[in-house]
Task: structure prediction
Amino acid sequence: MIEPDEHVLQAYLDGELTADQAAAVAAWLETHPQAAQKLSQWRSQDQALRQLWALRQKEPVPTNLLAAVRTAKRRGLPTWLQQSMAAGLVFALGLGGGWYGQQAYQGAHPMAAVDSLPRQAAMAHVVYSPDIQRPVEIAAEQEGQMVAWLSRRMQSRIEPPRLAQAGYELIGGRLLPGNQGPVAQFMYHDASGQRMTLYVARESAPRTDNGFHFASQGPVNVYYWWSKGWGYALSAGMPRERLLSLAEQAQRQITPD
Result:
């Protein structure tokens, strides 16, 4: 079988192939363990989306927003694009109205009950980290352009920390909406393809508790902290101890103007 591209693999994952096509992909995956591992990661991320944002029965999505997703289906847009639109819809509702899934923060610092920073960072992580086509707006290859653009929009010098020595390479960054204005998200991945995101947001008032805080929502662990009026949150589906080590390395490098 010719090596399937990402669209075919995504269709296989979504159950959209014929029986013969699915059997051919399954046979090909048996001899390509790296591709099989990538597919397993996609499946885990898809499950994470469902777990993190299971809709509450008493909180229906507004009908005009659902209509936009239905229109996309009628127009025959690719499944991955329909899913991205749906995830983006959930993300917008979560940021705008404080609406989120049934999973509560577990084993977290007491402040996690009132801090919006880790919740928003976890939402952004789960929405964008599975994206195959465009996980970032500007790739690491154009890092100078990315830093200049994000710094201009954030009105402060914003640079991604270097985590290559810890095994994480920068993929790139994007701009997101936040409660107090624009938010920057930097995305990293390791050799296995596992992704991690750093969420950088301006706080409405300086915080005095500058230490690390931990929050866990569903499958996403988050370490977050404040410094000089800025909030930082590192999110990933990895063990807490490993994430803390990476957060400590990131914190040492961050010096906003």
